[in-house]
């Protein structure tokens, strides 16, 4: 077996998404040292471009080494001390994961729950905040990849703006595909992942910390239990001192830089529109073929569409044929919806009408073939 003989796939699952030739070429450039002034200048540029994408002026904005789950854990571990009460929105896999992380950190986790496939009503979140004014943070998922739900945040952010509870938002699947307005909403820590709407391979978690969040870290009375994810230590490398903490994943950061340059060239509005249009086209085309949306109108993400198959068809064998006969990957359901739905990601490079057509042609072929 060798890497050069692997069959390419069209990645239309919940991530990773297709990686453009341009990004792959950038990643193949010669590796520099993590303290080389050229690399440090590139990293500074990545951080500046991430600020634009997150919609923030936060100084501490950077690509954390590790996948989206490292971003989740960094947000939680820096802010939580054992015994803290924390609120977590749970309506799918990733809210469940956040709650589990909080428990492992010794927090008293209070979940705010909604059925899978539904956003958590903002009033319900605000009621929980009112019931627990001592909560140290509220963590909530903006784009629930397990169901395709888009969580509204504006009212929650407005309510929390002057309070003591910090707002942590998971934007792993939203960043680069739908607007994530960190400062406008009043988010304190927001993290993402490179393998979704940014179109870069997995391995980095862009993350941003507000001054309020950093103040909480400074005054927490003892360091966080994770050394690797301690934002105060990482900040020593990002700032003027350039203090060694760990060796940055140089070539992945080249890839992220190229993606952020591409995004700058395309323009944020054009990129969000492209994702919205591709998602709408997919729903129309598959709707005509008898697929029915799992998530109701008004709550759907364009970049991740969850659907029931036509006529109660068994999803697993059809998904396997799509991969084996057409080289197209889509995702199945997780947890309570395992075996019941397809999850189709149109993220980054994948969010194009020609991709939708390619998928629809392949779906026609496998449905016609029984
Ligand atoms: C919403 C959300 N949060 C967190 C994660 C975890 O990211 P990773 O799998 O990159 O660790 C994912 C991954 O799919 C996700 O979709």
Describe this structure in words.
This protein is an alpha/beta fold and 370 residues long. It has two domains: 3-15 and 268-368, Alpha-Beta Complex (Aspartate Aminotransferase, domain 1), CATH 3.90.1150; 21-264, Aspartate Aminotransferase, domain 2. It is 41% helix and 16% strand. Strand 3, helix 4 (93-104) and strand 4 form a beta-alpha-beta unit. Helix 2 packs across helix 10 (250-266), helix 11 packs parallel to helix 13 (353-368) and helix 12 (315-326) crosses helix 13 (353-368). It is globular, with a radius of gyration of 21 Å. The mean pLDDT is 97. Pyridoxal-5'-phosphate is lined by residues 14-15, 67-69, 72, 94, 141, 143, 145, 170, 172-173, 193, 202.
Number of helices: 13
Largest sheet, strands/sense/barrel: 7 strands, mixed
* Binned strand content: 15-25%
Name the helicity range: 40-55%
Query: Count of DSSP E strands?
Result: 15
The H/E string reads EHHEHEHEHEEEHEHEEHHHHEEHEEEH
The 3D shape can be described as globular
Q: Can you tell me the CATH class of the largest domain?
A: Alpha Beta
State the strand order across the main sheet.
2-10-9-8-5-3-4
The CATH architecture assignment of the largest domain turns out to be 3-Layer(aba) Sandwich
As residue ranges, the low-confidence spans are: none
Backbone CA Rg: 21 Å
Taken together, the total number of domains comes to 2
- Distance from N terminus to C terminus (CA atoms, Å) equals 33 Å
Structural class: alpha/beta
Hetero ligands: pyridoxal-5'-phosphate
CATH domain topology of the largest domain: Aspartate Aminotransferase, domain 2
Let me know the CATH homologous superfamily of the largest domain. Type I PLP-dependent aspartate aminotransferase-like (Major domain)
pLDDT averaged residue by residue: 97
